[in-house]
Design a protein that fits this description.
The protein is mainly beta. It is about 5% helix and about 50% strand. The chain has one helix and eleven strands.
């Protein structure tokens, strides 16, 4: 499984960005996929995921209503649309694939494949 994240950048608070994660063929049929982020000095944390069952989505509480995760199976690409960005969203964002139990979709250690990360910086 190969994952490559892109789309990060510098944006003002209140702005939007769309992250993309290009995946190798078959990844979405086999694995749950998600986005995580890591701010300087902090642990990597869950942002959003698409589970294997029927494309069910899950979000970290602070991004609900602002971020949307989606996948285009034909393009083998996952997206994270981020709106109403806040300075506290500043982090390196990673896409990941794995087979967590449905109740453990937010557990970093249960995702075995990771992209290289893309920097998102939100200025105030």
């Amino acid at each position: 499984v190969q994952l490559q994240a892109s789309g990060g950048g510098l944006v003002q608070a209140g702005g939007s960005l769309r992250l993309s994660c290009a995946a190798s063929e078959g990844t979405f049929r086999t694995y749950a996929t998600g986005w995580f982020r890591q701010a300087p000095g902090k642990e990597r944390e869950f942002v959003a995921a698409i589970l294997r069952s029927h494309g069910v989505t899950r979000y970290e509480e602070s991004v609900k209503g602002r971020f949307t995760i989606s996948r285009d199976n034909a393009k083998n690409t996952m997206y994270l649309q981020m709106n109403s960005l806040k300075p506290e969203d500043t982090a390196v964002y990673y896409c990941a694939a794995g087979r967590p139990a449905h109740s453990a979709y937010d557990q970093t250690g249960l995702y075995h494949y990771w992209g290289q990360g893309t920097q998102v910086t939100v200025s105030s």
